[in-house]
Amino acid sequence: MARVDVALHVVNLVLGVSTWVFFGKSFEAANPVYQQYGGDFVSFFILGLMLNSFYTYTLDAFRMATLFILRGRVGQHLSMYDYIKLSGIPFSAPLLAFVVNGYIEQFISIFIYFCVGLLFGLKIGGGNYPIALLGIFIGWVAVASIGLISASMITVIGAWKGIEPVRWLVGVLTGLVSGVYFPFEVLPEQLQMISRVLPQTYAMRIARLALLQGFGLSELWADLTVLTLIALILLP
Asked: Which of 75, 92, 108, 128 is the most buried (most CB within 10 A)?
């Protein structure tokens, strides 16, 4: 059954990506805003999917791990949290194990996106990888910090069930205004102001321009500076 689930998950990813690729390519030539990203919608879109998958999990990881530990049970009478306390195991150990395991699953999904992207013409061979990785890492620090704030809401406001407001707000705004599926520059100026508050906007812009246009530090220093400031402000 697990193999069937994995196979269906892969099929869903492939079909979903294919639908958006064909949809986007119908508008590619009509919108000059893509030219600043190399004029290649497929590469722009696939990179957005890969990075969004990575950052969405980062946003959820610590909250989900915390809930797993607090709600989980060892046997019928002992909660996982109580078991950890009685065993003298640091709370951070199972939490990090849960988070790392989730990242392994995410990297598998990202690899699938990458392979599908290659089938449709993904081109990142001549990119500036060090700058792209630097932007992605700083973005990860910022998003992980938001994820920790989200996890803290479990005890601060008792967000055990239902919608956790920090994660909900950032998640909704990210999909709409951060440039996952289309350049944020096409948005009205009022929405672009919201875009410029989200670390995902800068991280994806840096990665795309570095990989698709080969931009380096001299062209991307302003975005890197703002992203670093956001990360420093959000660090717990």
From this structure: 128
Is 191 strand, coil or helix? Answer: helix
Domain boundaries of the chain, sorted by first residue: 2-28+36-234
**pLDDT one-digit tens code per residue, 180-204:** 888 888 888 888 899 999 999 999 9
Residues in the chain, pLDDT under 70? 1-31, 72-77, 81, 158-162
Give the C-alpha separation, 13 to 113, whole Å.
7
> Based on C-alpha coordinates, what's the Rg of the chain?
19
Residues constituting the chain = 236
Return d(Cα 116, Cα 4) in angstroms, integer. 20
Cα 23 to Cα 42: distance, rounded to the nearest angstrom:
10
Which tokens sit at 21? 């690729």
pTM equals 0.83
Residues 6+ apart with CB under 8 A from 204: 47, 48, 51, 52, 139, 178, 179, 180
Q: Count CA within 13 A, CB hemisphere, residue 215.
A: 22
For residue 78, the cross-strand partners are 74
Tokens of 56: 């969405």
Report which of 118, 191, 227, 226 is spatially closest to residue 183, judged by C-alpha positions: 191
